[in-house]
Amino acid sequence: MDKARPYGALIAGRFRSATAYRASFAVELITNAGGTAVDVSTVFVLFHTAKVVGGFTLGEALMMTGLTASGFVLADLTVGNVDQLKTYVRMGTLDAVLVRPLAVLPQLVIADLPLRKLMRFVVGLAVLIVAIAANDITWTPGKVILLVTAPLAGAVFFGSIFVLSASLAFWWVESGEVGAAFTYGGRDFTSYPITVYGGWFRAIFAYGLGFGFVSYHPALTLLGRADPLGLPAWAGYLSPLVALVAAGIAGLVWRTGVRHYRSTGS
Amino acid sequence: MIEMKDLRKEFTVRVKTGRFRREKRLLAAVDGVSLAIAAGEMVGYIGPNGAGKSTTLKMLTGVLSPSGGEVSVCGLSPVPQRTRLALRIGVVFGQRSQLWWDLPLRESFGLLRHVYRVPAADHESRLRRCRDLLDLDAFMDTPVRQLSLGQRMRGELTAALLHGPEVLFLDEPTIGLDVVSKQAVRSFLGELGQAGDTTLVLTTHDLADIERLCRRLVVIDHGRVVHDGTIEDLHSRYGSRRRLVADLEAPLPPDFALPGATLLAAEADGHRVTFALESIAAGAAVAALVTAAPVRDLSVVEPEIEDVVARLYTDSR
C-alpha cells in the first residue's frame, strides 16, 4: 500500500494537469466517445449486408466485439499512450524519469494517461451489455466469472502488446507506426469471429500471437457454441493464462529495453 | 561517496561507408575514468562538448548502464539499485525538467513530496529554506510552462533538494541563464556546499561556476581524465602566471631587469609594460618597478582560467 502511494499522487497530478485546459478536455472527451462508436458501427455495417458472417450472426459477433471493445479500451485508457516512449527516447527525456525513485513504466503511463479516452470505456462497456442482452445465454457461475475476467484479461493482453510495440523504440528510435499494426490491428482482428480470416493469417494472429483467446474463444464459451475450428470449450477459459504469458514477455522485453537506453547528448 | 574504477561507456554508431553500406563502429564516450569523490566535496567536471561529461553523470545516476568498469554512489550500484539510489541523490539536468509542465510550481513540489515519501515537516522546512534563498515566492503559483528559464531553474534546484539528497548532480545548471539568475544559482549552491552535508558534482561550460564553487576540478576530454586537482594546480601545471601591467610616465631604463619575472610586452614606446610574475611576489615587483621609473597606473591581472582550459583541450587532442 505504501508503495502505491506515490503513484496515486502522480495520478491525481495528472488529473489536475489534464483539466488545466478545461474546454479542450471536454471536447476531446466527447469526440473520443464518438470514435469508439464509429469503430463498433463497422460491425453493424458488415452484418447489414451479410446476415451471417463466418458462421456467426450479428448478435453472436457482437459478443466478440463487446469483449474486444471493453478490453481494448481499458488497455488503451491506461497504457495506450506508452507509445509516446519513442518521443522520450528520441529527445532523451527518459533521463528525468529514470532519476526518480519509481518504476519507469508506471511513471510513463501516468504522465501520458489519456483521460480523454475515458468515454471510450463507457461505449465499450455498453456494447458488451447490448451483446449480453441480444443473446440467449444460460448462465453458470463459471460463465459469470468468465464474463468479468475476459475483458480484464483482454486489457492485460492488449496492454502487453502496447508495451511490447512501444519497447521497439529502445532499439529502433524511428519505429514509427510498426507497433500500431499489432495494437490497433489486433483490436480490429479480434472484433470479428476469427473464422472470417484465411488459413495461415488466422493461424499466426489467432494462435501464434494469441489474439484468438482475447474475444473469440471466451465468446464461444459464453454463447455455449462449439468451435467450428475444433478447439474444446475450455479454450475460452485460457484467456487469463494467455494474457499472463503476454505480460511476462512484455515485462522482460521492457526491462531489457530500459537497460539498452542510450539517452542523448545534452 | 562516489567511486569510479576504469569506468567505460561505448556506443555503437553506424557510419556510412558507401552508397548503401554502413559500418558499425564502437565509439568510447567514456574511456576508462577512475575517480573517488569524498562526502562533502564540491567537484567541477568540465570538458569540451562531447568529452563524456554528461555520459559519466548519467552512469552515476543510474540512467545509463556502463559498458565496463565499476561504479558506486552512496555505496549503491546505480543501475541495478536505481530506485534506492534515487532516494538519496538529487539531479538537475539543465535541459530535462523534473517539474510538471501544466501545474503550478507549488503543486510540482507537493507531488515530489509524495514521490520521494518525505515527511511533511521535513518537506516544509526544506521548501521554506529554498523559497527564501532562491526567491521563489513570487512565482510559486505560476504554471511551470509560464516560468522564465531563470525561474524554472530555481524551481528545478528546489525540486532536486526537497528530499534532502546526500549527493547533488548538476548538469550545466547555469546554461542559458542571465547574469542575475546565474549569480542566484551560484550563491545558493555555494551556501549548500558550505553547509557541508551535500556532496556536489557539477558539469559546466561556464568556468566562473567552477571558480566560485569548486575546490576540485576534473577535466575530461575524449572520455579520459586529463586533469584532477585544484584550480591552482592547473595554473601551475600549465605555467599560467599572474601578470603585472604598468603604465609609466617614462620608459624603463634599457638595463632594467626584474628577477623572478619576465617582460612579456612593451607597448606605446615603452610606456606600457607587462611582466609575467614567476617567483616574485606582486608587492616586491611593484616596489622594484616604482624605483626604476615613475608609475602612473598599475594592475595585477589574475590568470584567465579560460585560457588554461583552452590550452588543456588543445593539448589533449
From TrEMBL, chain A:
Transmembrane portions of the chain: 118-138, 144-173, 194-214, 234-254
Organism domain of life: Bacteria
Keyword Transmembrane (UniProt): yes
InterPro entries in alphabetical order: ABC-2_transporter-like
Record's keyword terms, sorted: Membrane, Transmembrane, Transmembrane helix
Protein name from the UniProt record: ABC-2 family transporter protein
Species per Swiss-Prot/TrEMBL record: Paractinoplanes lichenicola
From TrEMBL, chain B:
Domain named ABC transporter: residues: 2-247
Membrane topology (UniProt): Peripheral membrane protein
Source organism superkingdom: Bacteria
Principal location: membrane
Locations listed in the record: Cell membrane
Gene3D superfamilies reported in the protein's UniProt record: P-loop containing nucleotide triphosphate hydrolases
InterPro entries for this protein: AAA+_ATPase, ABC_transporter-like_ATP-bd, ABC_transporter_ATP-binding, P-loop_NTPase
Ranges that cross the membrane: 26-47
GO molecular function, one term: ATP binding
Annotated keywords: Antibiotic resistance, ATP-binding, Membrane, Nucleotide-binding, Transmembrane, Transmembrane helix, Transport
Protein known as: ATP-binding cassette domain-containing protein
Source organism of the structure: Paractinoplanes lichenicola
